[in-house]
Amino acid sequence: MAGIPPTCCACPAFQDNLCHIFTEATFANALQDTAVDDHFAPARRLIWRAGETLERVPVICQGWAATSATLSDGRRQILSFLLPGDLVSAALIFEPVSQSSVDAVTDLRYRAFPRAELKQALGRTPDLLAIVSRISADENARAERLAIDLGRRGAAARIASLILALAERLRRRGMMPDKTMDFPLRQHHIADAVGLTVVHVGNVLAEFRRAGLLEINERSLTLADQPGLSRIAAEL
Amino acid sequence: MAGIPPTCCACPAFQDNLCHIFTEATFANALQDTAVDDHFAPARRLIWRAGETLERVPVICQGWAATSATLSDGRRQILSFLLPGDLVSAALIFEPVSQSSVDAVTDLRYRAFPRAELKQALGRTPDLLAIVSRISADENARAERLAIDLGRRGAAARIASLILALAERLRRRGMMPDKTMDFPLRQHHIADAVGLTVVHVGNVLAEFRRAGLLEINERSLTLADQPGLSRIAAEL
DNA sequence: CGTGAGCTTGACTTGTTTCAACCAACGTGG
DNA sequence: CCACGTTGGTTGAAACAAGTCAAGCTCACG
């Protein structure tokens, strides 16, 4: 795993196996750069529908995406946001059929790896298996955490929690050096992620702003009072 | 995987790799019955707390259990119910520290397998790796489904959904031949599983009973009108 | 016989949704 | 250059779903 190949997300902490950082680099390494292919998608475009078959395993390179499920009546639940370096889903390494839809939040660049080669590499390289199992456990932990939030916490706690989690993930990959982060999410993204209405999300965010907890302008978010936000997220 | 060893859950359909059935048998096989040990726990007992370290990987043999997370203020979210044959968590094969608490719903028998041997077997046996990845994907799908239910569906739909899912899982392992199933859950289990209050769950169940959708008495539940329940679960 | 766990019911409160109107920013085509 | 539709955000009032509080009940268990 030594010798980082040129990669699209320039992260400092390659050794950090606690997050998904550098999956792309790792994969490219394991596959010795055979047969990868790049793709682009503009913001707001749906990339795959749930149930579609993907012959290749995609990894996000640039931009944000969201995985979601849509109910018959149009209500939507976002299950996770994908940041640069994220594997779209560990399950896709083993099963070609996508369980959820994926759409681009911002303009997006992603790279797709051939599944067969990946599975082989998995048998060859115990390190890679460890990483994939880690990623998989991580995905699961995130899904369970979401269920806990949606089941047992109020609107403010959910929203604060989401923002802090995103900040933390960005920090881990060196994309948030100070208190300000890129924040391409619209209110409807947040609403669909935390299981609330756009209107209500707007109200809570306005409340946060009034309380001096955060500032949002032009696609960037500043954590003006992180301890305060954390307190709300904990909802003691 | 041929040659089913004597096992505690006597399921008919061994080939069904869509569910967790026979994990115990599979594991015992892969490990050639070395160093398994059995445990018992009475109903209502907490078995592990979240964060505890488990040196062995547990599989449910008899009875029902629940994995849950508890918030600082005492609110609880049940993340999954464990039925006979279920691996408690695929993540435990790789990481010894449990992410959630587990408690016994009924009197419980479970069996614990040594992690090291299990991991070795995983390298040796590609079949076993396939099974484990399948189980892991399944767990994740269930967690995501829970998030969707909690985030975007009403009380009745969530409860109907839970009951139907349990019925389906029991059917798969041959534990529900007709319209009636063992149902050891208390209303507070259901409440914690679907993110509602005990009172509200009681009301909805009463409503279901009045509408002739189901009957519950003495720890058994009869699906009097499954199509009706499914309609409510779909919440068209 | 008493105690605690579990279920049911009713009145009231709270959090969230729904509906609606309005405004600002932006891109597109006439 | 302006007119226009689309997308996103804000605010307020009314409707609704679910939570809280409280009481009374059964049943199992010691």
Explain the overall architecture:
The structure is a homodimer of 236-residue chains. By secondary structure, chain A is of the alpha+beta class. The first copy, chain A, has 2 domains: 6-145, Sandwich (Jelly Rolls), CATH 2.60.120.10; 153-233, Arc Repressor Mutant, subunit A. Chain A is 41% helix and 20% strand. The first copy, chain A, is built from 8 helices and 10 strands. Chain A has helices spanning 23-30, 91-94, 115-124, 126-152, 155-172, 187-194, 198-210, 226-234, and strands spanning 37-41, 46-48, 56-62, 65-70, 76-82, 101-104, 108-114, 180-182, 215-217, 220-222. Chain A has a 4-stranded antiparallel beta sheet with strand order 2-6-4-5. A 3-stranded antiparallel beta sheet of chain A has the order 1-7-3. Chain A has a 3-stranded antiparallel beta sheet with strand order 8-10-9, with no helix packed on it. Chain A is globular and about 55 Å long. Chain B binds a DNA duplex (30 and 30 nucleotides) through residues 44, 154-155, 186-188, 196-200, 202-203, 205-206.
List the helices and strands and how they pair.
The structure is a homodimer of 236-residue chains.
Chain A: H1 23-30, E1 37-41, E2 46-48, E3 56-62, E4 65-70, E5 76-82, H2 91-94, E6 101-104, E7 108-114, H3 115-124, H4 126-152, H5 155-172, E8 180-182, H6 187-194, H7 198-210, E9 215-217, E10 220-222, H8 226-234
Antiparallel strand pairs in A: 1-7, 2-6, 3-7, 4-5, 4-6, 8-10, 9-10
Helix pairs in contact in A: 3-4, 5-8, 6-7
Chain B binds a DNA duplex (30 and 30 nucleotides) through helix 6.
